[in-house]
Amino acid sequence: MFCIGQDGQDGICFEIHNTFDGEITGLLLRTLIFALLLWGGAIAELPSVADYPSIQTAIDANPGTMVHVPPGEYRIDTAIRIGGSGGGLYGFATIIQSNPAASILEIYQGKDLRLNSLTLKRSGEGVATEPGIMCRESENIDLEGLEVVSHHGRAAAIEIRSCKNSTVRDCLIQDYKAVTVDDRTQSPLHGYSFRCIDGTGIIVNVSTGTRLLDNRILESRLWPTRAMKDEHKLGEMLVRPEKQTRLIPPDAWESGYVNNWHQGSGIVVTGPRDTRGTVIRGNVIEHAAQGIDLHSDEVLCVDNVVRYGMMGVKMTHGCSNVIVKGNLLSYIDLWGILVNPGSSSNYARVDGDTVKENNHDSGIMIVDNMISHYGYGDEYWNWGGQHKDGGGSYAIALLGPQLPEENPPLSDILIQGNMVYDSGRTGKIKDGAVVVEPPRYRYAIRVEGTPGSDTFPKNLIIRDNLFHPGKDGICNLPELIDRNPE
What's the CATH class of domain 67-482? Predict the structure, then answer.
């Protein structure tokens, strides 16, 4: 029993039945603190938006102080801006942004700021071109218990850029995607644009010490079904280069159609060489194109759940010193875990006055992960479902460099203690009968390239996993597998 009293009077009491190994959940703790403040009269002493013409006026009038936003709806058409040291916003209010070209809330050059328990949403007018929450050049920012809903944009629902030691925890991001255009015309490697579903829940860019903890990133509107593709003409090229570029697939250039029209990610951590020390733990991601997309160094990605997507966890463009451990990846339809040297990876070199540090995909541990229900998601029909042999469908894929002459090969990769579970082997009920279905992945793990070649992974260890065989077996190179039970 936990009681809050005042001056010996009877107080508010909570009976806590603790089933979480001695830890009180963040939501319960916030409720207790709120009750304590309420009973003690502390909230009455803090500034309230109710006493000012607008939320922005209240913030400006109370620098360094937490400002309470009482329950209710607050409509805005410009971003709310917070900076300086200390303070922030809290309360069970809903802030609605009507301008798709503006963020809902911006934190710029702030330190020790907090946002707590607010609901931030857009009115649904147009595709959002700015993040829901933009946090830039700030330090020790804590976003907790927020709901960012109906964002509907290519820009992320929450973006952390050029920050140190930020935390996003216990937040809900719901319905963040939009039908839009992926414009790659400015890249000489691509040179085309196409119709797509795009959107990202949380992006971390050029930042250090970021923690993404126990968030839910969910999409209930835009799923990659055949009907959705036909309705919005997804994959149709709007700009097609006159000549085939290096990173446009030959069949796409000829047909004017790309099949990777489901874009974006639940979580992106990017900024190779500059983004370091990131913890991604305990998040639940559903119906993202890519669950967790990493282009960074020194990452701990553990105990996350990714359900329904094209990919579960992806590492590319120079990921080093990364641990991917204990994640549950289910209903994934292309690659459960992907590692490949993307076009942004490079060897170290000095060319006159130009010095470029190495940016390798190396030093990666993939351990104790579970991949199940592979191919039973929303978009298998667009990938392996088009081919009798499963095409390019692999539960775990280690692919070669995108630009072999420029991108270093993968190196120092440990894959151990993982399970790839063929969920069809135990039988599915169809037309009143139990039917054992064949696996929907071609291999449990595929390693691209020729052993011993310059582009083949170096120092690769695959051992003590439990991989159910795919359509063509456990691995395209069975000699790489050490101690896999049948």
Answer: mainly beta
